[in-house]
């Protein structure tokens, strides 16, 4: 039996209607920005394999370091024990995170990093004898799949089954250009009436919500308001962290750094599951006590797994190296040139770019959104050309591994231009048909 036949017999895939979805593509090997299926067909990975991969696939340096760690120590319970890679990684992260970040709490995926951030913020006040049960988050946000992260996320259609079980979160509009005052006023109103523990946000770019971008200045103004009200700010850098926005963290653009930061995805260069929730000394100090009940009672079997920490150390070394530091502005410059070239194209309602992420919003005659049929058409359009681009509704984006070459980027730009021309023709035919019908 082929891998595909065996897959279909027992495997249940995420985000997939198993009955109607096309068969998955069996990938057997990766190298650089390329993935290869069992027939040797190549796919250029323009989405960093669910936004995790930053140095390219099967990177030999990561493999070597993880392999060496595996031969030394593969796992140790992280309560009552510690190990060199976890300590070293914490030391290095504190050096590169915004200056106010002082403590590193480990877990194993982006959702748990957020869950921990929320729990930490609420208990920070609880330990001081204050009940602050409210969280504020942006409309259109996405923070993950666990219950707390789902509650903090916008009520997406996929979460309908559990909607009544989620705790209530106060929402404010995203401070898009021209709507900053509206967002600030909504925040003000909530701060005046509710007992709020934290404001949770995806800094500068809302990923799953369609690569929606807003300015550091607008976020700074919101954080400042929270600071005045004594409310903690949690930056969900699960997607934006490790260079995606052009700087190491999106929070590096801010004058007011967040109190808590959540990271995962790029942390291990996309090789092993690991996550970090960092916080300030002031937060940590509220848990530091002779009273056992003030401890943070949260942990996972794989908290600070040594293999994950070794991968993260290797990834960080590459990330801070000369090559990556040149790749990031190179990709950004290439994106900006392409953006200028196609500005005003009639197939697009918007193009936006920050750092290594560029997004193209295709004009959609139907209601926009994830279930838009355009999404599947575009996905297949690119896949047929050996390009892995996974649209978010009518938004196409490129978020590549940083090792992607200029030539490989050009393949993507050419295909996107072809898709724009195809889409424009489709729109023209629709208009002609509706004129003929009326
Ligand atoms: C901003 C953000 N937060 C949290 C998550 C959840 O991360 P994970 O899928 O590792 O649980 C994601 C995943 O896409 C994300 O984009």
List keywords for this structure.
about 450 residues; alpha/beta; Aspartate Aminotransferase, domain 1; Aspartate Aminotransferase, domain 2; about 40% helix; about 15% strand; binds pyridoxal-5'-phosphate
What does this 3D model show about the protein?
The protein has about 450 residues and is of the alpha/beta class. It folds into 2 domains: about 170 residues, Aspartate Aminotransferase, domain 1; about 260 residues, Aspartate Aminotransferase, domain 2. About 40% of the residues lie in helices and about 15% in strands. It has a 7-stranded mixed β-sheet with strand order 4-12-11-10-7-5-6, sandwiched between helices. A 4-stranded mixed β-sheet has the order 1-2-3-15. It has a 3-stranded antiparallel β-sheet with strand order 13-14-16, with helices on one face. Strand 2 and strand 3 form a beta hairpin. Helix 7 runs parallel beside helix 8. The longest helix is centred in the C-terminal third of the chain and has 32 residues. The chain is globular. The model has no long low-confidence stretch (mean pLDDT about 95). The protein binds pyridoxal-5'-phosphate (PLP). Pyridoxal-5'-phosphate binds next to helix 5.
């Amino acid at each position: 039996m082929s891998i595909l036949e065996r897959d279909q017999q027992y495997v249940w895939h995420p985000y997939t209607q198993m009955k109607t979805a096309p068969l998955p593509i069996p990938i057997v090997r990766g190298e650089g920005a390329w993935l290869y299926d069992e027939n040797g067909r190549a796919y250029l990975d323009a989405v960093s394999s669910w936004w995790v991969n930053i140095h390219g696939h099967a990177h030999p340096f990561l493999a070597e370091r993880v392999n060496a760690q595996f031969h030394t120590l593969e796992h140790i319970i992280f309560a009552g024990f510690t190990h060199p890679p976890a300590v070293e990684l914490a030391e290095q992260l504190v050096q590169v995170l915004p200056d106010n970040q002082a403590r590193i709490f480990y877990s194993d995926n982006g959702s748990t990093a957020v869950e921990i951030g929320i729990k930490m913020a609420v208990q920070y006040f609880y330990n001081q004898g204050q009940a602050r049960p409210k969280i504020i988050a942006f409309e259109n946000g996405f923070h993950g799949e666990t219950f707390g992260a789902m509650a903090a996320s916008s009520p997406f259609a996929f979460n309908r089954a559990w909607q009544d079980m989620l705790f209530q979160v106060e929402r404010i509009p995203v401070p898009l250009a021209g709507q900053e005052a509206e967002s600030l006023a909504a925040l003000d109103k909530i701060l005046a009436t509710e007992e709020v523990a934290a404001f949770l946000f995806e800094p500068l770019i809302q990923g799953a919500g369609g690569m929606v971008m807003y300015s550091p200045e607008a976020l700074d103004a919101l954080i400042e308001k929270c600071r005045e009200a004594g409310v903690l700010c949690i930056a969900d850098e699960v997607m934006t962290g490790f260079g995606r926005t052009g700087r190491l963290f999106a929070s590096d653009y801010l004058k007011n750094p967040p109190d808590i930061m959540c990271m995962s995805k790029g942390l291990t260069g996309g090789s092993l599951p690991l996550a970090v929730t960092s916080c300030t000394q002031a937060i940590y100090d509220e848990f530091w006590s002779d009273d056992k009940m003030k401890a943070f009672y949260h942990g996972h079997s794989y908290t600070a797994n040594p293999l994950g920490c070794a991968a993260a150390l290797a990834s960080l070394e590459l990330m801070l190296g000369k090559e990556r530091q040149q790749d990031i502005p190179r990709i950004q410059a290439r994106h900006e040139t392409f953006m200028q070239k196609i500005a005003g194209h009639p197939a697009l309602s918007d193009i936006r770019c920050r750092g290594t992420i560029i997004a193209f919003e295709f004009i959609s005659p139907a209601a926009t959104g994830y279930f838009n049929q355009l999404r599947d058409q575009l996905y297949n359009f690119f896949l047929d050309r050996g390009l892995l681009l996974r649209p978010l509704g009518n938004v196409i984006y490129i978020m590549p591994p940083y090792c992607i070459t200029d030539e490989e980027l050009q393949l993507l730009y050419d295909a996107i231009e072809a898709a724009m021309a195809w889409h424009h023709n489709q729109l023209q035919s629709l208009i002609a048909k509706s004129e003929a019908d009326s």
